[in-house]
Design brief:
With 72 residues, this protein is an all-alpha fold. It is built from three helices and no strands. It has helices spanning 3-31, 36-48, 50-65. Helix 1 (3-31) runs antiparallel to helix 2 (36-48) and helix 2 packs antiparallel against helix 3 (50-65). The termini are far apart.
Length: 72
């Protein structure tokens, strides 16, 4: 297999997953009424490194929506 084709397939897969996660994060933030400036950083991180941005967004969502509290 040609290495150029492999890199192309990898990047298409990486970008499609990142874009899918970005759309999901944006729609979920709208649903839970999370301010767009708070969602900006997780979206940028999702584009560059999908799992890190998704994890940060999920932590922020849990804290903002109050389904998970750090203290009583």
């Amino acid at each position: 297999m040609d290495s150029t084709l492999f890199v192309l397939i990898f990047w298409i897969h990486f970008l499609s997953i990142s874009l899918f996660l970005g759309v999901w994060i944006a729609n979920d933030a709208i649903k839970f009424n999370i301010h767009k400036y708070i969602v900006f950083i997780p979206l940028i991180l999702t584009y560059f490194s999908g799992p890190v941005g998704l994890f940060l967004y999920l932590v922020l969502r849990l804290l903002i929506v109050q389904k998970f509290r750090l203290h009583n």
